[in-house]
């Protein structure tokens, strides 16, 4: 029987999401016949390494956010020679760095939004882009720290004053329209979901039951659905990802404009998460999805 260690928790702003994902994953892997150890990752890296000694057959990486999906823990596992789920060091780092990811997408010919990375002090002084625009950290996930600055909005200085995500800010043009997302398993795009939220798909809307609705499959022209799926797979490849990812898009139907926002290299596995929902639509239950990830665990790739 294979022994799997599930890494969960972590020290990022997405700790609670990771804990929710990890518990469900551990239960599913036990049901699938694996021996499972849960490791709640905290600030003591030595304790994590000790918990991984002797080495398990594989690690299911259910961590989210910085240190969990930015290449940091991946490097530790590579050093220890322990296979792990999801992407490797380089791809994880690229996906988490929004500016670097956009450069990779542009090089691959994928459609991206106009954006600038500026010091947070510049944001305090003036609007970096024409209104409306989006302000976001360069290296957080789950829409942590994301704001929409609209015409007549006087929050810009306040956002800059209270910024707690490092010295840089990404300002990105606001693309109106529909919020769409596609999960990818290696070279297969599963389905397109339209996310219907009250305002925008922020942290609260993502992880609070009833705060948003998922229309699956999204009601789109077949040709557009196919294009979005192709772009999702191309984005996965552009970053060098492996295993499961999820690509987020905006579609301005008034101008027929599709924009790739980002790729999540470690999609959530919570009750409100999109990857398990899309997998189920394609006939892959949660237990099978978790087992699929574990059986493709690898290191140093």
Q: Strand share of the residues? A: 15-25%
Measured as a percent range, the helix fraction is: 25-40%
Principal-axes geometry comes out as globular
Distance between the termini: 25 Å
Find the count of extended strands (DSSP E, 2+ residues).
12
CATH topology of the largest domain: D-amino Acid Aminotransferase, Chain A, domain 1
Query: Number of helix segments?
Result: 11
What is the overall pLDDT average?
Answer: 91
Give me the secondary-structure category. Answer: alpha+beta
Classified in CATH, the superfamily of the largest domain is ATP-grasp fold, B domain
Radius of gyration: 19 Å
Q: What does the largest sheet look like? A: 5 strands, antiparallel
In CATH, the architecture of the largest domain is 2-Layer Sandwich
What would the keywords be for this entry?
12 strands, alpha+beta, D-amino Acid Aminotransferase, Chain A, domain 1, 11 helices, Dna Ligase, domain 1, 35% helix, five-stranded antiparallel β-sheet, Rossmann fold, four-stranded antiparallel β-sheet, 301 residues, globular, 3 domains, single chain
Describe this structure in words.
- The protein starts with a strand and ends in a 6-residue tail after the last helix.
- α1 packs across α11.
- A five-stranded antiparallel sheet has the order 10-9-8-11-12. The protein has a four-stranded antiparallel sheet with strand order 4-7-5-6.
- The chain is of the alpha+beta class and 301 residues long.
- It has helices at residues 15-31, 45-51, 72-80, 89-96, 98-107, 120-125, 156-161, 203-207, 222-239, 274-281, 286-295; strands at residues 3-9, 35-41, 58-61, 115-119, 133-136, 147-149, 168-173, 178-185, 188-197, 212-215, 244-252, 257-264.
- The protein has three domains: 3-86, Rossmann fold, CATH 3.40.50.20; 95-112 and 176-284, D-amino Acid Aminotransferase, Chain A, domain 1; 115-173, ATP-grasp fold, A domain (Dna Ligase, domain 1, 2-Layer Sandwich), CATH 3.30.1490.
- β11 (244-252) and β12 (257-264) form a beta hairpin.
